[in-house]
Amino acid sequence: MKYNGPKARKCRRQGMNLYGSDKYDKILQRKPSSPGKGPRAQQGRLSEYGKQLLEKQKARDMYGLSERQFRSLYALATKTTGKTGDVLRQLLERRLDNAVYRSGFAMTRLQARQLVGHGLFLVDGTRVTIPSFRVKPGQVITVRPTVKQSPLFAGIQAAHQKYNPPSWLKVDGGGMRIEVAALPSADDAERAVDVRQIIEFYSRT
Hints:
This protein is α+β, with helices and mostly antiparallel strands. The chain has two domains: 6-82 and 191-203, Ribosomal protein S4/S9, N-terminal domain (Ribosomal Protein S4 Delta 41, Chain A, domain 1, Orthogonal Bundle); 95-182, RNA-binding S4 domain (Structural Genomics Hypothetical 15.5 Kd Protein In mrcA-pckA Intergenic Region, Chain A). Helices cover 48% and strands 8% of the residues. It contains ten helices and five strands, in the order H-H-H-H-H-H-H-H-E-E-E-H-E-E-H.
């Protein structure tokens, strides 16, 4: 098991599983300290800017976004009516790959992004291959009929029986169908992300 691979180092630095895969939970159990020195010592050295940067990187890694994509979402959030932090959370959650992951039809966001990129999902009957596609209330996401019986989705369906999706998504695990019932609220977003720190980071750059 690679404790010093790029993703493993990021998980250890943040002290949490950023990617959802079980292997990172195992790495954190065996190597809970941040790479280099203990997490307390490192955290004590961080300036406010450093903490804000770390929080921004955490959100980027969790959702699998490049800096350009993340900055674009922040810019859009600042121009949209409502609290910037709440709007940013909502924009992150409304990505198609995230909706697929949050519905339990993928084991990780990375897997969800790959499944969407390969065109395995339809939105209102139309094949969509763009992971960043922004879903909206009333839309229905389904697995392409030709791949419903694949071994991949058979395993996901079995795991889905114990999964509770967020309230903004109505999920039919047996029918491999997701209905976007509402816009995600701040409570529906990833609780591990402190958007206040992210807003403060971008407001000073």
